[in-house]
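During data preparation, we tokenized the protein backbone, and the record follows.
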Amino acid sequence: MGRVVRKKGRRPGKQDTRETILNAAREVFAEEGYDKASIRRIAADAGVDPALVHHYFGTKEQLFQAVIQVPLDPGAVLPTVFAGDRETLPQRILRTFMDTWENPVSGQAFRALVASAATNKVSARLVREFFSRQIQRRLRTLAADHGVAESEIGLRSTLVASQMLGLAFARYIAELQPLASLPRDEVVALVAPTIERYLFGELA
């Protein structure tokens, strides 16, 4: 009776399983969108039991955040930003945004996220899905409280996003002067009126 010869090499481990689930989830979220994507479909594509997906990532929301690699928990940060008076909302948005970019850990992660979205279609779809879930839905509630038409939320929120991403690129990535060296308070004072108009003002 011959001896069974086992192939040498590293056995699949926890990290392999986790990455397999993440890769499957990335494709499913990009294809189906967050609402239609299911843990069962993701598990099937990854070749694992759905319970294993929950074991590694918890909820579908936590899995989505792991896929898109957002360096903060929007559910913890954004309610604080959107709470409070309307007059200081643009300032709160800007200060929170700048805090994130100026943090050594989250700032680096956001640079990677923006670079990936700019060059990869799957990453771009995931960023759009994140923006729709986390930002636009909260803005709809805010708009209803302040008499802004529901039909304008999509345009207004994307205008705000364009301003914020432009600011991030100019100040933190390209480091265009003198914007890159301006004190934070000056940047907030200069940009907040534009955010205010995009959110609540006349767009014509």
Remarks:
- Residues 17 and 125 are 24 Å apart (CA to CA).
- DSSP finds ten helices and no strands in the chain.
